[in-house]
Hints:
- By secondary structure, the chain is α/β, with parallel strands linked by helices.
- The chain has three domains: 14-75, no CATH class; 92-145; 164-369, Nucleotidyltransferase, domain 5 (2-Layer Sandwich), CATH 3.30.420.
- The chain is 43% helix and 13% strand.
- Strand 2 (221-234) and strand 3 (240-245) form a beta hairpin.
- Helix 2 (31-45) crosses helix 4.
- It is elongated, with a radius of gyration of 33 Å.
- The relative contact order is 0.09.
Amino acid sequence: xxxxxxxxxxxxxxxxxxxxxxxxxxxxxxxxxxxxxxxxxxxxxxxxxxxxxxxxxxxxxxxxxxxxxxxxxxxxxxxxxxxxxxxxxxxxxxxxxxxxxxxxxxxxxxxxxxxxxxxxxxxxxxxxxxxxxxxxxxxxxxxxxxxxxxxxxxxxxxxxxxxxxxxxxxxxxxxxxxxxxxxxxxxxxxxxxxxxxxxxxxxxxxxxxxxxxxxxxxxxxxxxxxxxxxxxxxxxxxxxxxxxxxxxxxxxxxxxxxxxxxxxxxxxxxxxxxxxxxxxxxxxxxxxxxxxxxxxxxxxxxxxxxxxxxxxxxxxxxxxxxxxxxxxxxxxxxxxxxxxxxxxxxxxxxxxxxxxxxxxxxxxxxxxxxxxxxxxxx
Length: 378
């Protein structure tokens, strides 16, 4: 018995058929698009099937099958037609004024706030007569579309050092060429201190995580003293050398350097490039002379970071990991236990050392901070 006579004969070219087959079995595409792809494929593969049979197989209404068969034949598309939607409630001028308001400070409008919210913007917009009524959700939607987030903030710091580029450039060169220099017997080493690490003993025992509950740490604690962590990071291979001290003076720094220079991890090097900030602990005016008086078997070069530029020091990334992995939550009976935990952590790091993937290069630095004359010369 012959099949039903369709008004349209569905034909799908091979290249589009392949695309529709992928779409028809997708778990990530919108379900409506998957259904439409299956409708077309079934119409192409089974021309003898009725509209009802295709609808039953796909799991939709016959009217849906008819609509997208017709749309494919007439337009070659499976997309929805644009819809007019509801009329705009607020003119563009209102949106522009509220956006301008969001890009200003609340105190400029006599409000005792530091940050905006959707509700606060709505309140001020009404007070200023920009609009008589508007929902905070509408304002938030507008700002989201414009990628404006006046309720968020981030801290930033600009180095006042007039020789910022001049000091930072050689350090970034060392980072970029660290693997090659390492093979030639030259090690780039970042050194800094994490100061005043407190040992806190909670007044109640810390409880480990259980089902549906995180780790429980008592909010009240007793201070058991503080330590200063000195750490050196070899840039090329990620190996660290760390020691703890009770204080952080130049005397402790010299003791740390003597331990580092005599340790096994620096054996075989011809040159050690020390990357330091100019804090008082490092005694910038005395350090060079003191190192020269040691008569070491290798050369030591000192590279001073610009003022307020600790973000250029790779060892700060190690300190961030220490804070997350060891010091949060802070639960130690005394300074000795804290020191043992820290040294054990660095031993574990050195069992599987990983160099930091540093992506900030001298080229990026010069492009952002150097004058145009310097950029053209570079």
